[in-house]
Amino acid sequence: MIQAIGLTSDPCRGRPAVVDDLTFEARPGRITTLLGPTGAGKSTALRLMLQLQGGRGVALFRGRPLHQVRQPAHEVGVLLGDVPGHPGRTARGHLRMLAAVAGVPADRADELLDVVGLSGLADQRLAAFSLGMDRRLGLAAALLGDPHTLVLDDPAQGLTAREVAWLHNLLRGYAEQGGLVLTTTRDPKEAARIADRVVTIEGGRLLADQEADDFARTRLRPRVVVTSPHARRLAAVLVQEARSAAWAGGLTAQRSGTAHPRPAPAARPRPVASAGDTGTVQPVEVVEESGGRISVYGSTCAMVGEIAYRHGILVHQLADEVGDTGSRAAPPLERADGRRGDHRPGHGGHAAPRGTGAVWGRAATGTQGAGASPRVPTVAPPGPCRPLRYELRRLSGIRSTWLLLGGTLLAGLMAALVLGHQADASGGRVLTGWPDILPLPPLAAAAGLLGALSFGQEFRFPALAPAQAPVPRRLGLLGAKLAVSSAVALLFTLAAVLVNATALTACYGTGFLALPPHWALDVGATACLAVGCAWAGVLAAAVFRSTILGTAAVVAVPLALAPAVRRLLADGNLDTVTALSQRLEPLILLRWPGGAESWAPTAARLLSQPVSGALAVSLAALFFAYACTTLYGRAR
User: What's the CA gap between 536 and 558, in Å, rounded?
Assistant: First the structure.
């Protein structure tokens, strides 16, 4: 059960609150729809309930506010707008990445792709998805955690009639299995077709809370539907009879391609008298449709049937319907991938999953909550349950990562082949492809860019934070990104060394392997520089919320900070290498295995590089800035 009590949004810039003291309930096993025009506050109400926006009131999900639920993805499945997925990621890759967020097995992604009819498009890129496919993928993502509740913001907007029919069947099957569905819509006809209960809001306030039958009877126009091979003649007879003294009400006839003195479009129904009103004349309207079908508003089956009988008009169908609820003749589009539906159809027309895992929500048990919080706190979405697996799938699931790594390896190889002709080039620079004209080796710059993308993509394609909510700042997520970026930088350096060494040996012979002494320290220093650049990219992108600014922070280390560190070191009385060697002299006097004491001058030279000092200063500043922004966000 969902209990929304006194939901009120904070006023903005002197304007009234978008949602003002909204209270309603949604029960399991039913579909509840928030109905209202654009700007009525439907989306804001959902954001208040999900604690994505600050305000007042309380929203209880089975007796608990959402911030007290340990694993929200297992309690509430959310679809707010389009799927915020990277356009270069596949449908299967996107769901497997989100499976790590929800803490469910990766094979559940394939189950849900089959449920929503996208298994044949599992390897299709999201950039090629239509709006209907995007909605199906969003529903699959909402169902990943096997939630008890589905919260959907206008899921049928922009869909075709067949896609809407499929969506209704899916949601109806979910509700009949005990799940709770809360949706929003702007169309009263849509609400009458799908909902069990309609909560009408206007101007952010509750206007009506009705069962679907009561809503259809009081808010929509009942009509008499007639199907006849002589529909045009019957419509003319009804017009003639309505103008006689026998009918006290007015009549407006509207036909396809025929002009009438008083046209009244059926899309804008006028209010009719309720059963309790006496002495009120109902307006009558005849609308001729295609296929020998007419709709009569403001009349009854008995009256229309009597007129048809008196004039000898054959009638094939005569029935009462709820007016303006749309046509249900279009069959639902069960699958979007072109495959035949060979699965076992479940109750209500939805597709039952193959395998042993349950797809629909758990058994519905409503619990009555006690008390109301005076204010709805803004809670950032939780981080992934399995952050390391999430980060690996996020990094490897798009082609740009592999293209960047491959292009960098190729650039480093070309630089190494050129440096192989220079006799004065050090072994470390040759093996890592680092020309003197570049402030950073190509592999370090690529590692910094990948690090910036790791957080930059979270803000641009917020898989962890739907509906433009703040990206979660969790130590587990940060640690996973730092660990993965470090591993990629180290493996990237090792791969570059192996590729360059193999190519240099093939081009210049085995004699080239006689490298200068302590070349391994140069390679290790380059690897550490790559790791440091990757960390700087991760932290800078997290602080500035941008991939471009994160990459700029990495580039600024050798271009801006390194010259400043060089000037600072030049002001000293002693040479930097000499001073560092004096510091290391007590350690050099010790007996180290393998002649490690001979590495001290090389190590001192590497540690005294201005780029190393500038990178250390940059990392310290970025760690401090990240901590400050995280604490500020939690305090706010």
Answer: 12
List Cβ neighbours of 260 (8 Å cut-off, separation of 6 or more). 252, 253, 254
Mean pLDDT of the 213-218 span:
82
Question: CA 63, 467, 134 angle in degrees (round to 5)?
Answer: 105
DSSP state of 205: E
Do 416 and 298 fall within a single domain? no
Residue 529 lies in a domain: yes
3-state secondary structure of 105: coil
Phi and psi, residue 9, nearest 5°: -85, 155
Q: Which two tokens stand for residue 130?
A: 């239509």
Give pLDDT tens digits for 520-552: 777 888 888 899 999 999 999 999 988 999 999
Q: What is the pLDDT of residues 448-506, one digit of tens each?
A: 999 999 988 888 887 776 655 567 777 888 999 999 999 999 999 999 989 988 888 88
Residues 188, 235 share a domain: no
Could you tell me the two tokens for 249? 């009400």
Q: Identify the pLDDT of residue 72.
A: 85
* Local structure of 626: helix, strand or coil: helix
Can you give the residue range of the structural domain that contains 528?
Answer: 387-635
Question: Does residue 197 or residue 561 have the better pLDDT?
Answer: 197
Determine the 3-state secondary structure of 17 from DSSP: coil
What angle (nearest 5°) sits at the alpha carbon of residue 220, between those of residues 218 and 222?
95
- Indicate if the alpha-carbon torsion angle 27, 31, 34, 36 is positive or negative: negative
Give the model's pLDDT for residue 4: 93
Rg (CA), the chain: 34
552-588 burial string, b = 16+ CB within 10 Å, else e?
ebbbebbeebbeebeeebeeeeeebeeebbeebeeee
